[in-house]
Specification:
With 329 residues, the protein is of the alpha+beta class. The protein folds into 2 domains: 152 residues, Gcn5-related N-acetyltransferase (GNAT) (Aminopeptidase, 3-Layer(aba) Sandwich); 160 residues, Gcn5-related N-acetyltransferase (GNAT) (Aminopeptidase, 3-Layer(aba) Sandwich). Helices cover 31% and strands 27% of the residues. A hairpin with a 2-residue loop joins β11 and β12. The longest helix has 17 residues.
């Protein structure tokens, strides 16, 4: 069904429509990857990842929260919504999308942004009266996205760092405190690992998806390989964990052998005891043994639990910055 947007740019053959699955799974991956390539962002999104996300939507109405722009039957851009409960009690309404680089600077980004903003205002109006904000994000190399957001009233509220360890040589093992040991992750403990991740990140800045759909996404993630996970236990209690992964499709396209030190978390009673540093050091060895030659991770620039120090102690350095943008609903 064609959707009419009154402010649409005058482009011959342009039409807007809702999602059409499964074909649009591939279109989202294609658009996002084209945008990252054009902005020199060294990541890629697989169709399987998109499918997993759309198969288990969390606070996202697939029929109403996505809009696609076509020209002559070819998808040239899209916008997406969804929302999350913030750890500070407010709600964040996602405003995001991608216009193919060949079709940028023609007004498509602006009209898609305004459509998803209006859709999010409609959604927010049905929710309880808490602080509500539209939220988006952009790598500092995405000049067009930065200009679009800032030109429409969004303000940077936070920074995320991407850190990299360019080699996996000279990894120094770090000891764990007495009584804490590493054990292989097991499928039967998957929900415990998910609950641990929710607990650990509940007091961090931002939001945590604790829905059953979130668990289903984790369980079905095509990149999940629990053989790469590093988990510390004390008795029958999980102390901390790192849910490492390898994005093999992205590595193949980018010509890398990069592993990800992902979801580093230590539970409160065991923080400030060197657990995170030891888990990261072990994770680097696990990734090296899996054939990787470098490692990356993401971290909140203002992390209050000493994460930056733990990562720098293991040889990581900041290589890219992403901005988080918000404006009131």
């Amino acid at each position: 069904m064609t959707i009419t947007l009154p402010e649409a740019p005058a482009i011959s053959g342009l039409r807007f429509r809702g999602m059409q699955r499964p074909a649009d799974d591939a279109e989202i991956a294609r658009l996002v990857n084209a945008g990252m390539a054009a902005s020199s962002v060294p990541h890629r999104l697989s169709q399987a990842q998109v499918t997993n996300w759309l198969d288990h939507p969390s606070n996202l109405d697939l029929a109403a929260d996505l809009l696609f722009a076509e020209v002559g039957g070819m998808v040239v851009g899209y916008a997406e919504g969804g929302w999350e409960q913030d750890n500070d009690g407010g709600r964040n309404y996602a405003v995001w999308g991608q216009v193919h680089p060949d079709w940028q600077r023609r007004g498509l980004g602006t009209v898609l942004l305004r459509w998803i903003e209006e859709r999010q205002r409609q959604v927010a109006a049905t929710h309880p009266e808490v602080e509500k904000r539209l939220e988006s994000w952009a790598s500092e190399s995405e000049a067009g996205r930065l200009a679009l957001l800032e030109g429409n009233g969004y303000r940077g509220v936070r920074y995320d760092y991407e850190m990299e360890r360019p080699t996996l040589d000279d990894i120094q093992p770090l000891p764990l405190a007495a009584g804490i040991e590493l054990r292989p992750a097991r499928e039967e403990d998957l929900r415990r690992h998910w609950e641990t991740e929710i607990e650990v990140f509940r007091d961090h800045w931002g939001s945590v998806d604790d829905s059953e759909a979130g668990f289903a996404q984790m369980r079905s993630d095509p990149r999940r390989d629990i053989g790469l996970w590093v988990v510390a236990w004390q008795g029958d209690e999980i102390v901390g964990q790192v849910l490492n992964r390898i994005d093999r499709e992205a590595n193949a396209e980018l010509g890398m052998k990069r592993g990800w030190v992902s979801s580093v978390g230590v539970r409160r009673p065991w923080r400030r005891q060197g657990v995170a540093r030891a888990l990261v050091a072990k994770s680097l060895r696990v990734l090296r043994d899996a054939g990787m030659t470098s490692a990356g991770l993401g971290v909140d620039a203002e992390n209050a639990n000493g994460a930056l120090g733990a990562y720098e102690a293991n040889g990581f350095r900041v290589v890219r910055t992403e901005r988080v943008y918000r404006k009131p609903v």
